[in-house]
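Table 4 source record.
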Amino acid sequence: MRPHGLFGAAVVSVACLAGTGHAIDTKTVNVNCATGQTIGQALDGHAKPGRALNVIINGTCNEHVVVTADDTTLRGDPAGGASVNGSDPNQNTILVNGAARCVIENLVVTGARTGIVGANSASVTVVNVQARSNAQSGIGSFAGSRVNVDGSVASNNSSSGIFVSDNAAGFVTNSTVQNNGLSGVTVQRAGSARIGQDGFGVDGPNTISNNGGNGVFVYESAQALVHGNTINNNGGAGVFVEMASATVTSNTIQSNARYGINVTNNAGARIGITDQTAAAGNVIQSNTLDGVGIFNGSNANMFANTIQSNGRHGINIGRASGRLVGSNQISSNAERGISITHGHLFQGQGDFALTPNLDTFTANTGDGVGVFQGGSAEFLNASITGNGGRGIFLSNSGSLWIQNSTISGNAGDGIGVFNGSSALVVAPTVTITGNTGNGVSLFNGASAFIQFALITSNSLRGVMAGTGSQLRMFGTTVSLHPQDGVGVFDGSTALIQCQFTVFPTCAAGSVTTISGNTFNGVNVAAGSTGVLQGVTVSGTNGLGVHADTNATLRLQTSSTVITGNTIGGISASHHSILNFNSPPISVSGNAGAFQVNCAGAPSTLIGNVSGVVGGVSPSCGPVFP
């Protein structure tokens, strides 16, 4: 975007010394442009230092106006209004140059470079003005000026509707900014703006719509408060923050052609959190790309937002960081609820004094959460339910840390950990239930450490580790699955145990329970290795524990109990190895003539089987010491 130019040769100007204080009297002058009078003549003839000047304007004035005297008011006739048309697109229609406490009211301002500009530390209030069809912008605040825009319309300008630039300030309330060629409101080059709130903190919502670029564009070390507005149907993002900072609160941001909110290139944003750390969530919906995009070294903190029905992800983090503090509802987006690539998400209260802190990801077409390419995510209190893909999907070295959350009813796995990714599931309890795939899937060199979780009633296995993956569990319940409780395949390893105080003593409540599953409680196969130390495997509608096809299974400690399974306790097949270490495990009360059985090509049993109550089948051959 090219910088806004401001100064051209003035057609009408007045050179008066600024007053040293507020005016002590007022002069009112009527100008009827239909009779050949001009605003410039009125300023030349009546503006004096120390005196306020009210110019009441009738008709259409074809001129460019420069105001340099403090306390000057240009007001359209209250009965019929008036218009000021600049003929030269290289000049501004009305320029307030260094003058303080000026008012422009009840006018239509058109036709030149920018309709109204405050420059060089001017202060201007613009009320009930239509600034339209200018060659660049409708209204501008420039070079240390302060411009208040209230109850006005900035439309059909070739560049921005309103701009604030070069250490200037702008306040935009109760106004409509629409159909401009580029952005609706631009805040740039260390400018500062409140859009939707005046200088006294009084709210005044704006409508910012149908602009060719962004609804609000904040960049180049600028800062903005965007509060309480309707920002819709713009050609870019609803709010775009680049190399700048913004607080975005209580807005409806919808149906924009790109992002709802885009925070990029070392920018910072509070989204739904006021500068006083109060909740003020936005509705961010039906935007063509992501509801919120956070990219390239940027950071955004989010609370109490509804982010829904966007055309891609609800939130997209790339090479950046984001924090979900709580009460965000991220739903019904066309792809994932949140996607993190080469970036980081922290979900939870952290150092914000805001509650409640549950964030919800639901009914998104794809995964609830996706973490990729070395990205990471931490969840302290989340509900990830009813999404069209996995609840959480990690791939290509993504990492997850999660506690005190629910992952349920998703159309794929509860948690999928793939391609060298890792997951750490810790107390307080994470509940993984009712997902259409496995509760937890590990694949292709992935790893997971699952502590004190509840994994129940998923449609396939409770936990599956495949293709060189690594699984460790303690204190976890895995129950009521139509396939294996835990399946370990294709060169993977699993350590299923309790939390030891001093080996072999288990800490209270830390024994892993695998119960009520179908096929096998624990199935270790195809060159995989399993270690059971401090686990109860019971009530399986099938085998309690199965080692198959070159698998190795180590069984140890009296807190490992295999009982009440309907086909048998332990089975080894096809060159597998069962290693019964001391202290011995307990195997009893399982169906079948023997508690330990073997099938297929010979397997090998080693160690202390004294805890096997009911014997080892002769098909297993000798038990080696």
